[in-house]
Amino acid sequence: MQPQPPPISLAQPLPLLYQSADLVAINKPHGLLVHRSPIASDASEFAVQLLRDQLGQRVYPVHRLDRKTGGVLLFALTEAMNSTMQILFAEGKVQKTYVAIVRGYTPDEQTIDYPLRRDDGTIQYAVTFLKTLQRTEVPLPFGKHATSRYSLVELTPTTGRMHQLRKHMAHILHPIIGDRPHGCNKQNKLFKDQFDMNTMLLHAQQIEFTHPVTSERITITAPWQAEFERMMRGLFGVDN
Fold first, then answer.
1. Which of the following is catalytic: 22, 42, 53, 66?
2. Which of 95, 144, 148, 228 holds its CA 20 to 30 A away from the CA of 204?
3. How distant, in Å, are the alpha carbons of 1, 39, 130, 161, 222 from that of 168?
């Protein structure tokens, strides 16, 4: 059985990134489940319930983020808007952009066109566009190497398969740091030992779509969470 992330406790309200009459977006912390799940019985706090209590009204998550992923998470405030946004996501009319810190030097750009298998055996078409933003080599011995190399990548999925980005990065041998079970356990241990870091370094940075009621082009961007920013500063010398 894979180790589960420790339960988190939120002393502060969820940070709101965008709010209108029918939509609201938060910057979801790493480690927070979107909603209750039978496979995560250790969790006691969930984004749906926390946001509902914070706003004093019912909320509807229109898409999902992995528990270990931080960043933009969008909710509808009415059933009608929830249905409409679900359709936009299903039709690929919502652009999602992620950033991740991965092992090794990635190519400048790459299209990862690699089908993924669901738990029930179904094979699903899946495509991710990768763009390398930065590379770094740090004096951190690993295995037979005197240094370690990492890349900051921008990932744009055109499909929304479960764990798509995590599986695609593992497939091209540049796993996301902190990913279990798809990542590199030796690298994950290195980061835990050297940096006391066990957060998965995947961040949902931006969502773009045309508002279905107002026709306004909406762009919602989430600043990095604290652990992601700490590793960006330590590895790349970059602040949020």
1. 66
2. 148
3. 22, 23, 10, 10, 23
